[in-house]
Design goal:
It contains 8 helices and 9 strands. By secondary structure, it is an alpha/beta fold. It has a 7-stranded parallel sheet with strand order 3-2-1-4-5-6-9, sandwiched between helices. Strands 7-8 form a two-stranded parallel sheet. Strand 2, helix 2 and strand 3 form a beta-alpha-beta unit. The longest helix is centred in the middle third of the chain and has 25 residues. The radius of gyration is 17 Å and the shape is globular.
Length: 248
Amino acid sequence: MPDMAGKVALVTGAASGIGAATATLLAERGAFVWFADLHTDGCDTARNAIPASESLSLDVRDPAAWHAAEARIGKLDVLVNAAGISRTTNPADIAEVALDDWRAIFAVNVEGTLLGCQTAMRLMAREGGAIVNIASTAGIAPSATLGAYGASKAAVAQMTRSIAAACAAQGLAIRCNAVQPGMAETPMTAAMSDDYRRAWEAQIPAHRFGRAEEVAQAICFLASDAASYINGEALLVDGGLINRAVVS
């Protein structure tokens, strides 16, 4: 794993799941890390005894909160947009999803990611840096129960390419990539029923859900100088789910 010494990173959604695993790994590799989340109690727990880090209260949906964070941070080398939600009040999802639920998902997953990227572009304008957004296999393959979430993550993948192109057009040394996890062991999947979980596991060539730490490894690679020639890409970290054989 590349050394991140001297880097300053901000990770949203850092109170749990993939965000917490990523922030912790970046700190272990030498970066100073801002553990950002709506609820800093979770960030404090995730940080444990990591000295080179700070908790940051951040509502990713709020432009004013991002501006306040920008003023406090001052310098930024790495941004990981890991904050995300998938829950809706109607399991039928795309067929009958409430518009308020649709908007809530897009506010966090899409608008929150956009605001983070815009903030990073300002903070990294002089010295460059790396942005890693969290998309999903749900943004590639359709699902009857993850329609709203999948649509938001498809938007994140396309936004990632657009941010990379915009930075290049402006002459900014800022790379923007995405990671597309499949099913991973996170609080988001913890509420799944046993039958629903087994149905997913049967489709994954690895026959299991990924660990948050496995996804974090891919994120930290894309954030590092080892990925200096990778830009505008969306990396699958899904145990082979999307590329599995249709007929065996």
